[in-house]
User: What shape does this take?
Amino acid sequence: VEGREGWEYLVIEENAKMPVGLAAMTRRRRMSGEVFFPGALARLPVQPLDGWLGRLGDALRAASSKGFEATLAVVSGGPADQFYLDHHIYAREMGAILAETRDLEVDGDGYLVYRPTRRRVDVIYERVDEDALYAEVPGLLESHIEGKVHVLFAPNSEIIDDKGVGAFVPEMVRRYLGEEPLIENARTWSLAVEEDRRYVMNHFDELVVKSRGGYGGKEVMIGPEESKDSVEKFRRKVEGDPVEYVAQETIDFSTHVLCETDGADFLLRDSYADYRVLVLSPDPTDPHVVEAVPGSLSRIAAPGKHVVNISSGGKMKDTWVLES
Assistant: This one.
């Protein structure tokens, strides 16, 4: 966003539980080099994305005491899943097993095994619904509790991505680390706090109000873009269970040029964009080692809209980080 001293970065929300986007980033980088901008990409000192999916695999294996030697499985919903191609890419580049729940079982010793080869699995990177995972692989939760397999997003880990918790992260940094956050949150109100709730309900049509557990641009109301009827309908929904919602100020954040076709012509339009930056902790012996992927899953909203989620009509772009 544009601040008093130039452009500033703000955290809108965090998605630690599902570190998605790296496969899409690498696909778009390849398209940039082979189809869209081969000349420019070759001439400019753009930092490559080669090998970063492998580093993600290192970060996921770091959850196991076996570290780099751990057997990793990407658990997918199968060919019917719209992201099945991404699951294939993740598994291939991370040297992981690509499995569906029907391919997994807990053996007589309480270890998770991959049925086709009987190989024991140490870490699960689940890309399926949690309820289905535990229902379709009996004994998995007990195996996880006993430390025989590490399920990366075990029950109750959703607190990591709870937008209601995210509202308090800057204050957590101050209280528990004694430091000031290096990047501030966008101004966020928790409707679980009475004072915040009163403010939000009095300024409802001016704010972005969203469900704590919503994703994909669902359960979000951007007040200035909605009709009066839509605002009032969403208000009634929030009033029914206010603690399940947070609100943020409406931000006119940075924009990218979006190219669209209109018959035989091209149209260039300014559209709001955000950056999904991926940060990894790939060293199993030292959790203080942190690496940022030199790129971004940049998402661009439909012209005139603020919601950038792909499932809500947004687009993705390859973002280049240049060597200094």
Q: What stands out?
A: The chain has ten helices and 19 strands.
